[in-house]
Design goal:
With 366 residues, this protein is an alpha+beta fold. The chain has 11 helices and 11 strands. It has 2 domains: 197 residues, 2-Layer Sandwich (Ribosomal Protein S5, domain 2), CATH 3.30.230.10; 165 residues, Alpha-Beta Plaits (2-Layer Sandwich), CATH 3.30.70. The chain binds adenosine-5'-diphosphate (ADP) and magnesium ion. The site of magnesium ion has 5 residues, from helix 3.
Length: 366
């Protein structure tokens, strides 16, 4: 379910929970990242696709009690009541509360707010449900109060909420893709300048997203450790950001202590692979693109150490089953993989993979 159906469904969910129709409904897509992982908070390149049929929808209305947000999510089947002045509480409603505070604190202090959330995007699968929730929340709340914000401004605000309110030190890729990306098309983004190039996918190949069945919890995971390691590597190498480095710096990168050397090398590698990926995609060279995905997974596994045995096995099996390339996608420590599969083979390929892995689930073909 996506698009108009999902908006109708979130309106129905709102009405079922609160007894009145919502004033505004909005949605935002998840994304699958094709190349460039953890490069975004290092000022590097990324190449994600906003997903067509996997999104979060939010319905809102002015509330009953000034300063109070009543929030309901069909994912957790529970209502959460938050005061607009509250700090984060380690709950799902932090994402909504943070977004409301960022753009409409004064308005909600006066009117209160009711919100219902539905999704068909799996949480913690590396497909950016958090960013989709933020962007959908910001879209809904800005429309409710007539606040003008561009898609870029929404992306920047959403990232700030995740960094500063939720406490997850992510880069801008997820929020930018969800807010600015055209569902179905790839987006090459320079995270330093926010300059971006939309690129259509391959004509005769599809990107297939498969959940490994292992979920991550990013705020608890090694993500923040990797951010800290990159900062330490930047200091050791005397650069502002690791994306200041290129292949010519690999010798001096190798000389800094373990594991900082490998963390920095991953950023250099994946940044290069992402630039090459843009060219391969623009030239329609799926074979070259597949090779880049395989190299990127190896760098994620060996240098950045963000893969898990389940995603490593799934990536290997994906290629054995006929994919031109495959890699773990998203922040890591489990979640989904993305594979590049000839269009005519997608059905058989999916059947082969799901027969082999009991917990694997095909989430999207794009
Ligand atoms: P990812 O963004 O890869 O899916 P994160 O750990 O960054 O994983 O974000 C997942 C968190 O986002 C969930 O634990 C929950 O707090 C919040 N979230 C996402 N979608 C929803 C939803 N539909 N309802 C409530 N909370 C959600
Ligand atoms: Mg997230």
């Amino acid at each position: 379910m996506s698009g108009p159906d999902q908006l109708q469904a979130v309106a129905a969910a709102f009405e079922a929970h609160f007894g009145t129709a919502p004033q505004v409904v909005a949605s935002a897509p998840g994304r699958v990242n094709l190349l460039g992982e953890h490069t975004d908070y290092n000022g590097g390149y990324v190449l994600p696709i906003a997903l067509k049929h996997l999104s979060v929808a939010v319905a809102v209305s002015r509330g009953a009690v000034p300063g109070v947000i009543e929030a309901w999510s069909d994912t957790f089947h529970e209502a959460e009541t938050r005061a607009i002045g509250e700090a984060r509480a380690g709950r799902w409603s932090d994402y909504l509360l943070g977004c409301v505070k960022a753009v409409a604190e004064a308005q909600v202090a006066e009117t209160g707010l009711r919100a219902a959330v539905i999704t068909n995007l799996p949480l913690g699968a590396g497909l950016s449900s958090s960013a989709a929730l933020e962007v959908a929340s910001l879209r809904a709340v800005t429309r409710l109060y007539g606040i003008e914000m561009s898609p870029q401004e929404i992306a920047i605000a959403a990232r700030a909420v995740e960094n500063d309110f939720v406490g997850m030190p992510c880069g801008i890729m997820d929020q930018f893709t969800s807010s600015v990306g055209q569902p179905g098309a790839a987006l090459f983004l320079d995270t330093r300048t926010l300059a971006f190039t939309p690129v259509p996918g391959f004509a005769e190949h599809r990107f297939v997203v498969v959940h490994s069945g292992v979920s991550h919890q990013l705020t608890d995971s090694g993500y923040a450790t990797r951010v800290a390691e990159c900062n330490a590597a930047s200091a050791a190498l005397d650069v502002e950001m690791l994306s200041d480095l290129g292949p010519g710096d690999l010798a001096r990168i190798g000389a800094i202590p373990e594991p900082l050397n490998r963390r920095a090398r991953h950023i250099v590698t994946d940044n290069r692979l992402t630039r090459e990926g843009l060219v391969a995609l623009q030239q329609g060279d799926a074979v070259a693109f597949g090779r880049l995905m395989i190299a990127s997974h190896a760098s994620e596994r060996d240098d950045y150490e963000i893969t898990v045995p389940e995603t490593d096995a799934l990536v290997a099996a994906a290629v054995d089953a006929g994919a031109l390339g495959a890699r773990q996608t998203g922040g890591g420590f489990g979640g989904a993989i993305v594979a590049l599969v000839p269009r005519a083979q997608v059905e058989d390929w999916c059947a082969a993979i799901t027969a082999q892995f009991a917990h694997a689930r095909v989430l999207a073909v794009t």
